[in-house]
Structures are given as structure tokens and as C-alpha cells.
Design brief:
- By secondary structure, the chain is of the alpha/beta class.
- The chain is 31% helix and 26% strand.
- The protein has 10 helices and 14 strands.
- The strands form 3 sheets. A 6-stranded parallel β-sheet has the order 1-4-3-2-5-6, with helices on both faces. A 6-stranded antiparallel barrel has the order 9-10-13-12-11-14.
- Helix 5 packs across helix 6 and helix 7 runs antiparallel to helix 8.
- The longest helix has 21 residues.
Amino acid sequence: MAMQFHRTFDRLPSLGRPVVCAIGMFDGFHLGHQKVIEKTLKLAQDHGAMATVLTFQNHPESIVGKGSPPPLIHPSFIRERLFERAGLDLAWVVPFDAAMSQVSALDFANHMATYAEPLKGVVAGAGFRYGRGREGNLALLEEHLRKMQPKACVRAVPPCEHSGEIVSSTRIRRLITEGKLEEAHQLLGRTYLMHGTVIRGDGLGRTLGFPTANLDMQGLVAPPNGVYAVRAKITSRVFNGVMNIGYRPTLKKTKPTRQIEIHFPGETLDLYDQPLQVAVLKQIRQEKAFPSMEGLKHQIANDLLAASPIQIEHRTPLDFL
């Protein structure tokens, strides 16, 4: 049975079963998040309940943060695919807006008890905070829930550690921006994938004889500048490619913008507005300026040669979604 969705913070549809609900942002759906969902599924099974997750479509820091919100590891729709793959019955995906940021801890608990009736259990990471100004913790949530639903329990899942450090979305974002992708793979429990939509570029790659797909990853974390051997999934097909991330210093533009461009050798593809999933296999070199466009063309040809043995080495199936 396909996972169902509910996209407003109001009463869940009655499916004839009680509810066990995981709560959290779950950005990246890393090893720690997976422990929370495993606990949720087990508790739901024990109670003959519907296994659900309450999460936010956008990061709360985009509303309550003093600076820019952290870039996400995955867009919301990929998080939803991972929830479904995990075996959840329903994803409660709520926009986090100004009104939500002002909901008190008590009101949040009251809403949970009312909207998810009958509520058998709530599961979250041990450090979970909620309510206006992050005033609520799990002990307070259980106290408030049980006033309305006496049989509801709250389960705290302890932090997951890897190499002596807690696994967190913040740590994984840092690893990705530092180019430590192998470690990011380990903390995610699967291959880190870049996700974006192909947008129109300035056509420089085509002029040079190496047409590229320009990837829009606004609001998402990305590896550091450089040239990479990659493998990308486009609809149901998988292609090898070479990706450049950076400011294209050879062009010497006065106001360069960071771009993500992928060339798929030997392929003629119409990819505009299509979603891409990109697995980064290995960095080939760092970004650098060349004295001429001919020098850049020569280097791109060498990059393609360097990528080929890397792609042959990484023949094992990747965790495309």
C-alpha cells in the first residue's frame, strides 16, 4: 500500500487505526533519523497502529533564524521518498510559517492529541525541542499529551554516534561542503546524492564542444568547487558524466556566479526542466583559471579521460531514488 500524505497541520484522516507518530525535520534521513523511524515502526506494530511522521516542508530556521537557513541535504520530495521506502503509512508534511513559529509547547501538544486521535505514541530524538522559542522538550510533551490521551507514550531515541561524534544533519552538511563525501555516505547509510533541476545556461559548454546540463540546487548543500567524475540518473536512465562546480575563472567575469554544470560525453539530451540525481564518484581536480579558451578545452578533454577509469571502478549499483 502506497504511503499517504497530509499537508496541513490539522486532523489526520481516519484510517481506522490508532496513530504512532515520529516527529522531526529529518533532513538527510541519516543513521540517527533511521533509528527514530525504526522505533516508530516497531511501536506501531506493537499497537496495531498507523506509523506516521510529522515533519516540516521547509527548515524552521527559514522563519525563526537570525541569518540564512542552513542549506538542505535533500529537497522535501526526496525526504518523502525515503519515508515511503522506510515503510511508513503516512507522512504529515507541514509548511513551517510564521503562525507555526508562534504555537506554544502546550498548544502543540494539544493539537497533536486532537489531530492524531487516538494517539498511541510519539517518537523523536532525545534532544527534540518544539513550540515557540523551542520551549518544549519530550518530558513536557508526554506530560501534556497524557492529560488528553492517557494511554499515549513518548519515546526518546538516543543520539547515534559514528567515529566518536554524534551523527547530525549539521555534521553531514559540513562534510559535504568540505568534500569528505565518503564519510558523508557512511553517516547517511547510503550514497550521498545531489538533486536539482536542469536550467538554461549561457551555452558556453556547447560553444566549446562540451554541452552541459546546468543544475539548479538553490537552497541545497553542494560539494566544494572542482571537477568531479559523476553518475547521474535522468528519469529511468543512468549516464556517466563530468561535473564542474565553481565560478568559471577562465571567463574573468566581474560578477561571477557559482554554477553546477555536467557534461555527458557522447550523449545528446534535452534535459531542460528535468530533475537529476547525481552521485559524485570522485574529485578529479580543483577549479583553476586557464590562460585561454583553447587551454580550457584541452583540460576538459583530459578531465573526460581521467573520469573514465573512475567510472569503470564504480560499477556497483548506486542508491538512486
